[in-house]
Specification:
57 residues; 2 helices; 63% helix
Length: 57
């Protein structure tokens, strides 16, 4: 199998790609949290531990 990967050339495009990758990653983490069999307050605590930026406000 051959795979061709194109890297964004401009700094703006690189930042955009980084933001999109972060969004996909956080969506995957949230999906995993939803599937856990623990109470919601534990899921919220896990989310706050792995994503401290959401605590700012």
């Amino acid at each position: 199998m051959n795979i061709i990967v194109y890297r964004p050339e401009t700094e703006e495009d690189q930042k955009d790609l980084g933001k999109k990758a972060a969004m996909v990653h956080s969506q995957a983490v949230l999906q995993c949290l939803k599937q856990l069999s623990c109470p919601i307050y534990q899921k919220q605590a896990i989310w706050k531990e792995i994503n401290p930026d959401t605590n700012k406000g």
